[in-house]
Fold this sequence. Notes:
By secondary structure, this protein is an alpha+beta fold. The protein is 29% helix and 44% strand. It has a single domain (4-163), classed as Alpha-D-Glucose-1,6-Bisphosphate, Chain A, domain 4. It has helices at residues 18-26, 28-34, 128-132, 134-151, 155-163, and strands spanning 4-14, 41-47, 54-60, 66-77, 81-89, 95-108, 111-122. It has a 7-stranded antiparallel sheet. The N and C termini lie far apart (45 Å).
Amino acid sequence: MPRDERDFEITKQVKASIDEVFRAFTEAPQLAGWWGPEGYDVTNVTSDPRPGGAFALVMAGPGGAGQPVEGTYREVSPPSRVVTEISAVATDGSPLVIAVVTIDLEEANGGTEIRLSGHGTALTPQADDMLAGMQEGWTSSLICLERFLEGSQGPTLKARHETA
């Protein structure tokens, strides 16, 4: 039985092509380069970006403990839309929190506008904090995505963020 539910929406402009941004949201090597809030690393990334296809990764924060994340692609419409159902998973394999995340991409101002919206549901008491931090976590993740994308375009853009 759901404990709590939350909706969120974030819009971010990045200086990368819509195709590059789409690949960053769907390809395993790309996901490994940016997924997660600042200070987190991911390992064991798999991705099958097609409707019904699965993805999985392990997210490790500053404390080092790994948090498995699993999901299913509900919709994959290159290069402008991805809809996923994502779950943070407990050690026993049961879901802690489930979120449906919609990513809409649009060419804008020489780059890409990302509109990310989600609806999350906490399924256990330990997931309440995860749910409460979902918007902040995704906001930080999109900053990591921006740095990843700009870093792939050359050191000048990346250096701007490191000194800011």
